[in-house]
Amino acid sequence: MKLEILYEDEYMLACVKPPGVPSQADKSNDEDMVTIVKNYIFDNQSSNDEPYVAMLHRLDRPVGGVMIFAKDKDTAAKLSKQQTDGAMVKYYQAVLTGELPEEYGELSDYMVKDAKTNTSKICSKDTDGAKKAELTYELLDEFETDEGILSYVLIKLLTGRHHQIRVQMSHLGCGVWGDTKYNIKYKNAKKGVKQIALFSSRIELEHPVTGEHLVLKKEPYGKAFDVIEMDEF
Known about the structure:
The chain is an alpha+beta fold. It has helices at 33-43, 73-85, 164-172, 223-226; strands at residues 5-8, 12-17, 54-55, 64-70, 89-97, 104-114, 119-123, 131-145, 148-157, 198-206, 213-217. Strands 1, 2, 3, 4, 5, 6, 7, 8, 9, 10 and 11 form an eleven-stranded mixed sheet that branches.
């Protein structure tokens, strides 16, 4: 697979993960982003040493969009600190099935992960393993289709929990289009790896060495987002 590079220097690399490609190696043994990036760096360096590649954040397999990788341990530590401190800001675009309660909203819940099923759910604050999950959303457009009302939204992720956007939006009653794991609308649909209408479209951060403010962007693409072209805006 040819990498779509958004930014690269000696410290870091930002690229686009296609929907359906794993972020890191899994039991499927399919080509994953960490391996793809590592092979790309190896093919473009002068030495035969194995490149250092650190994945700063992962995207669910059916989700596409911007990903960032560090090329050395010091850069990885600095970028990880930005994530922890909230200095790295991540935006997603999504198509949701249903009508949102308001045009602008903030969701704050507690979530817990079930490692056995690789799923997460909303829970009470005092549940063992509960972690706070926060995001804001803005309604970009709303339209009617044969599938009912669809909402096109921009989401700002304030925390980075497992399957967070998918779980919180489903809990709100407006699950992600095509998400057979969490969207109750698809409870009888066949499960499987495919693209869902959720895309990491923008990440803002400070360069870990130069301090330059970086804005890394990619507009959503793929079959899952063709659904919003069924009507004229």
